[in-house]
From TrEMBL:
PANTHER family: TRNA N6-ADENOSINE THREONYLCARBAMOYLTRANSFERASE, TRNA THREONYLCARBAMOYLADENOSINE BIOSYNTHESIS PROTEIN TSAB
Superkingdom of origin organism: Bacteria
Organism whose genome encodes this protein: Streptomyces parvulus
Catalytic EC class: transferase
Protein name: tRNA (Adenosine(37)-N6)-threonylcarbamoyltransferase complex dimerization subunit type 1 TsaB
Length: 217
């Protein structure tokens, strides 16, 4: 097994290689505006660090969000392209699940990432492997009662200490955690998600109202 994992659902552009036993190379850069520019060089970098070629990869793992439309589609389109070119399966993993796995907390806790617009993408977890609720997007104040008293991880939790007073790192997801979680699940015979995006809301860019279509005479 050689899994190439990547995620662009948060400001982190993160890539890792996992050989079925451990992470053998990884790269993470935080830059919310340069996902498309940074992702492929990061893939080249981790392959070079591991001394391997892309055609050695036996599977792709992609973070499926939730996340902003533009950033998220960069990673998923790249993952789909690699899968088609190499003829290998592409597996999806919820980005919040990757953060939960990296946090390695005992007992109930919350993962929350920054959804912009003064909102967070979030979910509750029983432990680092067990999500209790579907991913959702809400204003922090609106979910205060549901997360009260619980530890929280992720950039969204760190941004809103009034709602998440027990917030701490990791701030962003790492592909190393995604790859490790995926490898663990695959080894146990568990099914992973389809590599389809969890947007949870419409993209910011929309056709203006009263838009006039100009047709040639």
């Amino acid at each position: 097994m050689l899994l190439l994992a990547l995620d662009t659902a948060t400001p982190a552009v993160t890539v890792a290689l996992h050989d079925g036993t451990d992470v053998i190379a990884s790269s993470s850069q935080v830059d919310a505006r340069r996902h498309g520019e940074l992702l492929l060089p990061a893939v080249d970098r981790v392959l070079a660090e591991a001394g391997l070629r892309l055609d050695a990869v036996t599977g792709i793992v992609a973070g499926i969000g939730p996340g902003p439309y533009t950033g998220l589609r960069v990673g998923l389109m790249t993952a789909d392209t690699f899968g088609l070119a190499l003829g290998v399966p592409v597996h999806g993993v919820c980005t919040l699940d990757g953060l939960a796995y990296a946090a390695d907390l005992e007992g109930p806790f919350v993962v929350a990432t920054d959804a912009r617009r003064k909102e967070v993408y979030w979910a509750r977890y029983a432990d680092s492997r067990t999500r209790l609720t579907d991913p959702a997007v809400d204003r922090p104040a609106d979910i205060a009662g549901q997360v009260a008293g619980l530890p929280a991880v992720g950039a969204g939790a760190l941004l809103y200490p009034d709602t998440f007073p027990k917030a701490h790192e990791p701030e962003h997801v790492s592909a190393a955690a995604l790859a490790s979680l995926a490898a663990e699940k695959l080894a146990a015979g568990e099914e992973l998600a389809e590599p389809r995006p969890l947007y949870l809301r419409r993209p910011d860019a929309q056709v203006p109202k009263n838009y006039k279509v100009v047709t040639p005479k």
